[in-house]
């Protein structure tokens, strides 16, 4: 009898793991299918999407100016790559929903109540960072680039190089706008305190400019346009951390009063 129990033990232990792996595969498959469906729906507009992304630069070039393609496949690959990135960008809420559906059963009620708003805030902040890059940073940055060069130099940007440039900035600003969430989670988890982070402001300012230097082109304008919002968002994270701390203190005082 004991031998039967011993032989069934490993199989019973493996069954939940296999079920989780099957569910994970299902969730990943749904996410990939969603991205492919969006991509196929957008591909007919690939050139229009590229024209939209290139508009901040093209608006500052002399009338009649065009971009160039220095590689044979660039006229096809650049819009294709951009459309795929846009499809992933649009599908992010659905992808995160699939991730949430996979991990939610293993969370406590209080963790669920906190995790869902954080996921929604993360998506909204990433989109806000990309929008800030397109509508604020790109016009200022390209105006600086096009007006500071020698007058007899014609700006003829390669479409693939331009795409790599703007995607890097989209990603950099999207990630930078996640700073309030990261700061809030550090305070919430107890890894640090509001007072400790407040004392490190000089180092944070220096770190923001170092990150701006590493994640943007080598010019002061783009570095500052990334570093300054990063620091302001850091302060936003501290503000939310203070609010959470005060709420916890009030809850603890209420519990003590109720016990008395």
Task: Annotate the secondary structure layout.
Blueprint: H1 2-42, H2 46-58, H3 74-103, H4 109-148, H5 159-176, H6 179-189, H7 194-199, H8 201-215, H9 220-259
Helix pairs in contact: 1-3, 2-3, 3-4, 3-5, 4-5, 6-9, 8-9
List keywords for this structure.
mainly alpha; 0% strand; disordered N terminus; 9 helices; 260 residues; flat
Describe the model:
With 260 residues, this protein is mostly helical. The protein contains nine helices and no strands. Helix 4 (109-148) crosses helix 5 (159-176). It is flat and about 80 Å long.
Number of helices: 9
Range of helix content: over 70%
Give the helix/strand class.
Answer: mainly alpha
The shape, in one word, is: flat
Mean pLDDT: 82
The radius of gyration computed from the alpha-carbon positions, rounded to a whole number of angstroms, is 25 Å
Q: Terminal Cα separation, in Å?
A: 56 Å
The largest pleated sheet is described as: none
Strand content: under 5%
Total strands: 0
Low-confidence stretches: 1-7
Elements, N to C (H/E):
HHHHHHHHH
